[in-house]
Every structure is written in structure tokens, then in C-alpha cells.
């Protein structure tokens, strides 16, 4: 309850911040985008992770305001990097169920793009597999609206839900994200290796890219690349970091090119 009270003040008192985690192409190693991940710097409890406070924000109806703020921050950051002469980066933003269901979502995304001047083609929204499978028809309709604006969509935490190939085919998505629970034990689990391979071929069957999240070791990276995975995200490349550290990585990448 105390946490809930605190959350109400967090936005107004500037306690939220956004970190960014790079995503790279597996074949070239080049960073092509980042995922925005919100954090709460609590005055007494220190840094609170989103898996604690995002569900809380969903329950108390604050997810709209918080999600909106993250979306605006992320779009402004991507635009600022572009203006600074850095290579164009895809900016991925997580959208939770209640945020996705909100009738104002499409307008809010449009506002964040117009407000920042970011091209729609540089924005991607990550929605979870469980979210879109609750009501396939409604999810497809909303995703088509976003697609028409030029915004890309990806399915997060893929493999943890129960999507059928026939329903997946209806979604206008450009990327599947292999959930990190399958990546973690790639070295020791033949089952997880089989699941990862199956998701990679499913993605390619659907003609979409596939990214593995939670890549921590060189062995995991090598397995994924050998098996045709397109992209990676994880501590092996970088933890979620402040924008300045993303800039440093990009400058380094430009210097090496
Ligand atoms: O770093 P990590 O602990 O950031 O994130 C934990 C979970 O919180 C992830 O499932 C992630 O999708 C979610 N998350 C992080 N940032 C946001 C956000 O801005 N909005 C929503 N809805 N979820 C987020
Ligand atoms: O080649 P092109 O840029 O048109 O491919 C678009 C996407 O289609 C790629 O990002 C890739 O994920 C996917 N794709 C479809 N078929 C295959 C395939 O057989 N192998 C690979 N690696 N990707 C494929
Ligand atoms: O939205 P999503 O559930 O995909 O959020 C990504 C989550 O995964 C965040 O909590 C992020 O901090 C975390 N993460 C990113 N890279 C790694 C990694 O290499 N290992 C682990 N264990 N977690 C990671
Ligand atoms: Mn995500
Ligand atoms: Na995920």
C-alpha cells in the first residue's frame, strides 16, 4: 500500500527513469536498435524494477500515464540520437495489456511521434504473446491501425504462451522475441535447443525476424547464430544502460566501421 502511494507521486516527482538495452544483428554484430526499460528510483527503497511496479500500475489505473511518459521519453531519446548524427536506431517500447486495450493507445502513439518528430518507422511496440492471444480479433484490428501509421510490432516473451500458427499469421508483426527462459539453459537443455530452433523456423516461415533475449554467453550466441537466429539482446552485448552509454557504444561502432 505504501508502494502504491509512492507510485502516485513517482511521475510528478521525477522518480522514474528509462534505461536502454541495445539489440544487435547476429551476423554483423552491429547494434540496430534499443529497448526502453523503465525504472523507479524510490527515495527510500532505491531502484525498483518494473516487474514489481508495472503490475501495480496496471491495477491502480496508472499504467496509462506511466506508459505514456515512457513512450514520450523513448521517442524523444531516439530523435535526439538521430539529431546528434548517430545512425538511426529502432526504439522498442513495451506495451502492457491494459495499455494496449485502452482506446486512446493509437492516439497516444501518434502524439508521441508528432511531439518528438520521430519517424514512425523507427518505433516498435513489444506486446506479449499472452496479451494478443486473449482476443485475437481485437488485437489484430488494433495492430493493423498501428501498422498503417508505420509503427512496427513485435511479440515479446515468445514461446511462453499458446499461439497457433493460424492465429499468428493474422498478426501484422515484424519480429518474434524468443523468451529468455529458453535461452538461459541452451547449453545444458536439449529441449530448450529444440524450442529455440522451432521458434526460429516458425518466425522465418511467417517471414518475420527473430531475436533472442537474455543472451549472456558466447556459447548461446554461437548456437543462435548457427541456427539462423537473426538478432540478439542480452548482457553479453550490454545490460540496460543510461542513454549516454548507448551513445558511447554507437560512437565506438561508427569508429570501427
Ligand atoms: O529490466 P527488466 O527488469 O527491465 O523488465 C522487467 C519487465 O518489465 C519486462 O517484462 C518488461 O517488459 C517490463 N517493462 C519494462 N519497462 C516497461 C515499460 O515501460 N512498460 C511496460 N508495460 N513494461 C515494461
Ligand atoms: O531477405 P529479406 O530482408 O527480404 O528477409 C526479411 C526477413 O525474412 C528476414 O529478416 C528474415 O528474418 C526472414 N526470413 C525469411 N526466410 C528466411 C530464411 O530462410 N532464413 C533467414 N535467415 N531469414 C529468413
Ligand atoms: O520486456 P521483457 O520481458 O523482454 O524485458 C526484458 C527483461 O530481460 C528485462 O528485465 C531485462 O533487464 C532483462 N534482461 C535483459 N538481458 C538479460 C540477460 O542477458 N539476462 C537476464 N537474465 N535478463 C536480461
Ligand atoms: Mn520487452
Ligand atoms: Na521478454
Task: Tell me what the structure shows.
- By secondary structure, the protein is an alpha/beta fold.
- The chain has helices spanning 2-10, 50-59, 63-83, 97-101, 105-116, 129-134, 136-149, 165-168, 180-183, 190-205, 218-226, 243-256, and strands spanning 16-25, 31-42, 46-48, 90-94, 123-128, 152-158, 175-178, 209-212, 231-233.
- Helix 3 (63-83) runs parallel beside helix 5.
- The longest helix has 21 residues, at 63-83.
- The N and C termini lie far apart (52 Å).
- 37% of the residues are buried.
- It binds guanosine-5'-monophosphate (3 copies), manganese (II) ion and sodium ion.
- Manganese (II) ion binds at residues 35, 94, 126, 156.
Brief characterization of the structure:
Residues 1-254 form the EAL domain. The chain has 257 residues and is of the alpha/beta class.
Helicity, as a percent range: 40-55%
Q: Main β-sheet, in a few words?
A: 8 strands, mixed, barrel
| SSE class | alpha/beta
Number of helices: 12
Strand content bin: 15-25%
CATH architecture: Alpha-Beta Barrel
The helix/strand order is: HEEEHHEHHEHHEHEHHEHEH
Please list the strands of the largest sheet in the order they lie side by side. 1-2-4-5-6-7-8-9
Would you count the extended β strands for me? Answer: 9
CATH topology: TIM Barrel
Instruction: Flag low-confidence runs.
Output: none
Distance between termini? 52 Å
In the residues, how many domains can be counted? 1
